[in-house]
């Protein structure tokens, strides 16, 4: 009797796990993806510039839109979730040689209390600022929005394998914080 109960419980557990797994697999297939126009609108609201191209792809099982954006600081490749439009990756592909003037940056910062994305410093400038505060190897960079202000979050690893996170105001270049993991 005990063996039958054990086999029954194991069978029930396997059935439940298979059902939950199948539900997860098919959940995304039944959700509707956003249209390319909807993705373009979301990207244009979040980042300044002109969308040059949008293409749909599947990478590592995720449905994504890859957007090529060009603005006054360079060209960017943005990967956005096809269901929510949330940006999952931002990569600067090419930096423009001509940088905005101080007047242009100030004008961009004045509009909507930093809510505009005009006049941000380049990724390269943010890297230089971070590496001037912490000597080491640049690891990664993310551009995030907090309370209407864009902030670069950069990770730098020192020669002693200490990882630092440097937060830089994307409009002014001001270092907001330097933190590290113990």
Automatic annotation (TrEMBL):
It comes from the Bacteria. InterPro entries: PepSY (IPR025711). Residues 34-88, 121-178 form the PepSY domain. Pfam families: PepSY (PF03413). This is Uncharacterized membrane protein YkoI. It comes from Aneurinibacillus migulanus (Bacillus migulanus).
């Amino acid at each position: 009797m005990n063996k039958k109960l054990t086999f029954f419980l194991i069978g029930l557990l396997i059935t439940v796990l298979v059902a939950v797994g199948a539900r997860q697999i098919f959940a995304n297939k039944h959700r509707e993806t956003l249209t390319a126009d909807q993705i373009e609108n979301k990207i244009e609201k979040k980042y300044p510039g002109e969308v040059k191209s949008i293409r749909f792809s599947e990478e590592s099982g995720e449905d994504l839109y890859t957007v090529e954006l060009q603005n006054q600081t360079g060209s960017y490749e943005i990967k956005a979730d096809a269901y929510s439009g949330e940006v999952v990756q931002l990569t600067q592909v090419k930096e423009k040689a001509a940088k905005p003037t101080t007047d242009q940056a100030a004008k961009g910062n004045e509009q909507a209390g930093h809510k505009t994305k005009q006049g941000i410093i380049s990724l390269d400038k943010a890297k230089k600022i971070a590496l001037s505060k912490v000597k080491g190897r640049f690891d990664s960079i993310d551009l995030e929005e907090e309370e209407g202000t864009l902030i670069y979050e950069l990770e730098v690893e020192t020669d002693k394998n200490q990882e630092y996170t440097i937060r830089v105001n994307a409009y002014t270049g001001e270092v907001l914080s330097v933190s590290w993991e113990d």
